Amino acid sequence: MAKSALLKSSLAKKYWMAFTGLFLCLFLIGHLLGNLQLLIPVSEGARDQFNEYALFMATNPAVKILSYLTYISILFHAIDGIWLTITNRRARPQGYVSFKPSTNTIWASRNMGVLGTIILAFIAVHLYQFWGQLKFGSLDDSLYTTANDQEVTDLYTLTIQTFQDPQYGLIWAIIYGFSMLAIGFHLYHGFSSGFQSLGVNHPKYNGFIRKLGYAFAILVPLAFAVIPFYIYFILEKI
Amino acid sequence: MNLTLKIWRQKNADTKGKVVTYQVSDISEDMSFLEMMDVLNEQLIDKGDEPVAFDHDCREGICGSCSLQINGEPHGPDRGVATCQLHMRKFKDGDTITIEPFRAKAFPLIKDLVVDRSSFDRIQQAGGYVSVNTSGNTIDANSIPVDKESADMSFYAATCIGCGACVAACKNASAMLFTSAKVSQFALLPQGEVEADRRVLQMVEQMDKEGFGNCTNTGACEIECPKGISLENIARMNREYLKASVK
Ligand code: HEM
Q1: Nearest CA of chain B to the CA of A141: how many Å?
Q2: Which is the closest atom of ligand 1 to the Cα of B172?
Q3: Is the separation of the CB atoms in B103 and B69 below 8 Å?
Q4: Domain tally for chain A?
Q5: CATH code, B117-132+142-246
Q6: Which CATH number is A71's domain given?
Q7: Of A68-82, A178-192, B125-139, B170-184, which gets the smallest average pLDDT?
Q8: How many CB pairs under 8 A join A and B?
Q9: Which pTM was predicted?
Q10: 20 to 30 Å CA-CA from A156: which of A22, B70, B73, B86?
Q11: Rounded Cα distance, A174 and A161, in Å
Q12: pLDDT, tens digit (0-9, with 9 covering 90-100), for A43-80
């Protein structure tokens, strides 16, 4: 019974939710560190550095394993999350005439499913836009050799051009910014919630975990969101 | 004071219910909410109407019988009290008060404001006990040393009166706060340790079977609980369950 309980029970679903969610938080940090290289001025060799980094990320075996874990986590987290949202709704077939959840809960905690769905839609668009182009698209034509003698595809130029596009650049930046807002709200509740789900709750550490979660939920999405606006408004045009 | 009451009326589980509006007047602010309901019911009986059915027993916040959803919150707007301890001074003259039953698939409606909370009993029966010999040579409980902190925390968990406000408040109609309190009160004591694994596995299994929702850690339950049962108990249950399932 014990083993199947760890797969099927309500608590098990929460463990997987929390485990994959917190793993994705680690992924966000890694992804952000890579993206921050887009802030490097064009004149200082940003193109070579970013493309070499992208090549490393695509070929290093350890990174490969991590990336597969990330895909699986997103998939699992999304399926589990949507499933939980639906079954939770079924637990109250007849609703209240008057229900005031705002008196005892924060908005983000009640809308994890909606926020998650926005994030999922964003991930789909985002993957199509960059990763899809890298794997299946026309980027092969952009192969060139960097100053370090590495043959790379030019993901950098694709990225910069997307956000510097005179017609759509700003719209993309706003879409990305909005999606980061959704991630921010998701994590404003989700970060500390994940620890609670895994049973980490102690009066001594709760304050710290909550504050760390708030800092994470504000700073990480903000840093992500700044990049496309920086590329559109500030970075020299390429 | 004079009040407008919007009350859920439903003859039984098989008929459709609806909100019916009533007026009550000359309500004293020193009355408890249930006494105000008594006034309404006397008024209805005098008129030859069917009184509103609602659960109540001790009327001093111990039994966990009363169970009204008042203006969108279980046990009303006050904190740390059951409906029977809610006083009319929390309302103003001329207020409209919406009164509904606790809503959950696992709390099927019986009549008007009365719901069947026996799902809680079944969770409790699935493992919320300690097996000790009580047939004559019972050992005094105090012969087993318990540290003060565990004793206190166990006691706080045990103050849960099983009213179901946690389920009613939760957007997912989850029974995690109740179940975790009942798991915790024993898990924290040496007497409860022996059956700890079986207890948590069986109680959670029963909780799932009853059709309660899952926990999203919104924290509504803790705030609405008349006894202030802490979310710490849910985390403890999560730990206990994880421990028991990997064994
Ligand atoms: C970068 C991506 C994401 C990160 C970092 C993330 C992180 C988290 C974390 C840490 C939690 C808290 C887990 C818990 O309460 O135990 C959570 C909950 C949740 N996530 Fe995500 N998430 C992401 C994407 C998604 C996506 C794509 C969905 C798709 C629908 C989603 C749906 C949900 C739902 C519904 C919950 C609440 C589950 C519950 O408490 O019952 N998330 N997320």
Answers
A1: 48
A2: 41
A3: yes
A4: 1
A5: 1.10.1060.10
A6: 1.20.1300
A7: B125-139
A8: 151
A9: 0.93
A10: A22
A11: 15
A12: 999 999 999 999 999 899 999 999 999 999 999 999 99
